[in-house]
Amino acid sequence: MNYTNLQGQVTNVKPHYQPSAQSLRLIILLILVMGVAPSPALTAGCPARCICDDQLVVQCAGQHLTAFPTDLPLATRQLIISNNRIVELPPLQLNYLSDLVYLDCSNNSLTEISMSTFGNLEKLAYLDLSFNTLTRIEDRTFGPLSSLVMLRMTDNPGLSDIHPDAFAKNSALQVLDVSRNNLTVLNISSLIALPILRSVGLSGNSWSCDCDNEDLCLWVHIEAFKFQDEGQTVCRGPPDLQGQRLGELGLQLRSRCHQGLGSWDYLFFLAIGFVIFAAGTMSAWAIGVVMVLYERYVKKKSEQMDPDDEVEQDAGPGTGGAGGHHANPRGNGDLKNTGHMVV
């Protein structure tokens, strides 16, 4: 009787524990499938309002974004965020994308970029910053982009200043387009040093064709084949040169800018003259000192030798008289003997 009751209790207990086991298995399965899976940033996760494909391309163009998209897959190789209203490229988020090779930021509201913006994008080969509101490119802004091949930075109406060393580290750069900005002067010292640069776009700027742009005009004249729309790359000033092509004025500016001497040239020659005068004066003084010392040395040496000469001179005449005294008798005798022989 007790055994029967115990068996019934056991039978009644089994259904009570069976759902718990199934729930446990479901929980374990969910953990394996979802709970320990990599974050969306490492797999197929995709930012809101963007489209991601199997080729690691993230397409966020024309989505009215006002901020850089978050939760981007870290393996992204192409990122297109054009035609939005993004005002800043956050270095922290952007530099997580170390495999990025293509970045299109055109037609946004970017106002500035710095060297830290692209600090970890060593594989980036294509960068488009066109149709933004950039005003200045700082020193070595693109320095970390050692693999950059093409840079498009056109149609920034306020862009009027590019630092001379902005492209100093971009030895792989082949195509640079800065057309239709507000540039008046461009220092080409770092550009002419780029070994494989083959295409440059300069048209549509307000170039000032004066001595500040002499090197630029001469470069366009010598290597016209490198310049896109070279025929539309014209001067905005001064008035007498307005509308003329930069390439046509290379040699003309060369002769115009070096035909006379400026105030700095005169100061330079004055400084050189002073240096030469000072050097000549010091040399003459040194030679004079050496001559005086040499003269004193010779005089002292002469004074030391004079007493010995006087002793020799005093002894010389006495010896000569004695010799004459002994010689005369022989001489007279000889004369007498000679006279005697004649007689």
Automatic annotation (TrEMBL):
GO terms for molecular function: potassium channel activator activity; transmembrane transporter binding; voltage-gated potassium channel activity. This is Leucine-rich repeat-containing protein 52-like. It is a single-pass membrane protein. Residues 45-78 form the LRRNT domain. The keyword Repeat applies. Signal peptide: none annotated. The lineage of its organism: Eukaryota, Metazoa, Chordata, Craniata, Vertebrata. The chain crosses the membrane at residues 24-42, 266-294. It comes from the Eukaryota. The keyword Membrane applies. Residues 304-343 are annotated as: Disordered. Keywords: Cell membrane, Disulfide bond, Ion channel, Ion transport, Leucine-rich repeat, Membrane, Repeat, Signal, Transmembrane, Transmembrane helix, Transport. One of its GO terms (cellular component) is voltage-gated potassium channel complex. SMART domains: LRR_TYP, LRRNT. It holds the Pfam family LRR_1. It is found in: Cell membrane.
